[in-house]
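Summarise what follows for lecture notes:
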Amino acid sequence: MALTGSCMCGAIAYKSDSDAAITALCHCIDCQKWTGGAFTSNAVVAEGDFSVTKGIAFNQFSLPGSPKQYDVTGASGKINHHFFCGDCGSSLYTRLDVMPGNIIIKAGGLDNGKASLDNKINVEFYCRDRVSYLQAAEGAKQEHLFG
C-alpha cells in the first residue's frame, strides 16, 4: 500500500510506493528543535520508493512550491538533510547520511490518518533525551542513542 502526504499549504506532495519498513519516534534535541515539539514520529521508506509528486524534488534553487533543504551535523557526526516547504514551513522528510538509501518521512504530513503510524512504533531513538512527561511507547525497542 502506498503512503501519501503533503505540506500544510498543499504546495508539495509526496508518496512512497511501499509502506514504512520502520516506524520510529526520535527524541533527540535536533528533532525537538526541528519540529518545535517533544519528538518526531517517522516512517522510514526506501529512497527508491519515494518521490515528490507535487513541487520539485531535491531542488537547489528554492523556487516557490519546492522543498527547501537545511543540513545539520547530527550527534552521529554525519549530516542530516532536512526538507521542508519553503512556503508554509511544514517538515516533510529527512535523508540521513547515517542511514543511506532511506527517506525518513515526517508522519504528521501523511494522509488518510496515517500520522498514527497504525499505532505501531518499532523503535524509539535518543530515549536519553525524551522529555520527562512522556513514557516509552508500548512494545517499541528503546535506544539510548541512534541504533
About this structure: Residues 3-142 form a domain with the Metal Binding Protein, Guanine Nucleotide Exchange Factor; Chain A fold (CATH 2.170.150.70). The longest strand covers residues 40-46. The first helix runs from residue 29 to 35. The chain has one domain: 3-142.
